[in-house]
Amino acid sequence: xxxxxxxxxxxxxxxxxxxxxxxxxxxxxxxxxxxxxxxxxxxxxxxxxxxxxxxxxxxxxxxxxxxxxxxxxxxxxxxxxxxxxxxxxxxxxxxxxxxxxxxxxxxxxxxxxxxxxxxxxxxxxxxxxxxxxxxxxxxxxxxxxxxxxxxxxxxxxxxxxxxxxxxxxxxxxxxxxxxxxxxxxxxxxxxxxxxxxxxxxxxxxxxxxxxxxxxxxxxxxxxxxxxxxxxxxxxxxxxxxxxxxxxxxxxxxxxxxxxxxxxxxxxxxxxxxxxxxxxxxxxxxxxxxxxxxxxxxxxxxxxxxxxxxxxxxxxxxxxxxxxxxxxxxxxxxxxxx
Length: 337
Hints:
By secondary structure, the chain is an alpha/beta fold. About 60% of the residues lie in helices and about 10% in strands. The longest helix is centred in the C-terminal third of the chain and has 19 residues, at about 290-305. The termini are far apart.
């Protein structure tokens, strides 16, 4: 098998790439953005664009779909794609981009496209050079800048672009796509497992698909397999630790925590984040003032861990605090499903 064929096979194994939309008509949850982009395709003209928003919401995909609908299947001949996190220096702007901007135009469209992914990682000098190129070659080249943090793009560039703000995907859209992929790939799944995937990914479609593929590699997509591949403990086990500590049994809670960390290979920060999430879960019944007190102390523990404090000592301190709170507030009740 040739190197090119090997790469093609590898790409097909990456579901996030395999099931990426190829046309604007396939993009979901970004209706207003798609409507505006369709207008550019219809008019065969567009300004410089800035796509901003969280990861995995379709920014790069939308750029490719726009180019596809403008130029057809051979759109890559007329689009230069650069990842600005790797090629972010002023030399790239002065060579690659400049040379491409001077090259031959497509037959029916009066401009080519330069796609700068992760443009918020570009150096200040490169951005200053870019602003000048955007002016010089605007008649033959349009730039699409993609940024997770648009505030890192200098104002002169922002003012030259039409800004499109992408939002995290809705649950129903993510679930529909995951189920479609499972059907196409012949993967068996639990409905609850897909719910968990959405909660972990927080509207990031790419992350959702990658978690699904990793879970499917273990067999049926179950809740246990999902937590296993993402390196998180099952919420039920975390709630059991909190429940035990609040009940006043510090030693048992500490033993459960040690077992949990060994079984899942969790760091102290991982545990604290999951405990913080479960404190506000409906599965644990706590008075409001108790939640506030625990949340305040969890924040302190998290800061200590990030600053380099010992995981075991800090987590034991957290369990001790929970034990004291449980003994102080005798009305505390914790339920675990």
